[in-house]
Specification:
Layout (H helix, E strand, L loop, with lengths): L3 H18 L5 E9 L2 H13 L9 E7 L6 E10 L8
Antiparallel strand pairs: 1-3, 2-3
Length: 90
């Protein structure tokens, strides 16, 4: 298909930039919201998207953890918090 190689290359490059940006040495993931109720989680995500907090959508991670023992899902929203910049020694 025409353009497929270019599209795959761009997707790969974007994934590599994301991995470098969210590397553990650059910061940590802070949990914003955690629940076992999916409707409550979806309501939180809607509020987060509609709010004007200035959050970078690419820095928000939405996880759905499935528990095999109970068959229920646990939902978590996390925000990437970069380490504070250290001032250079003067």
């Amino acid at each position: 298909m025409p353009g497929q190689r270019r599209r795959r290359r761009r997707q790969h490059e974007a994934a590599q930039r994301s991995v470098a940006r969210f590397a553990p040495e650059n910061g940590r993931w802070e949990v914003l919201f955690e629940t076992g109720d999916e409707s409550e989680f979806l309501a939180f995500v809607r509020r987060l998207r509609s709010s004007d907090t200035g959050l970078d959508p690419s820095a928000v991670r939405l996880d759905r953890l499935c528990l095999r023992e109970t068959g229920r899902a646990w939902c978590r929203a996390s925000l990437f918090v970069p380490h504070p910049a250290t001032p250079p020694d003067a």
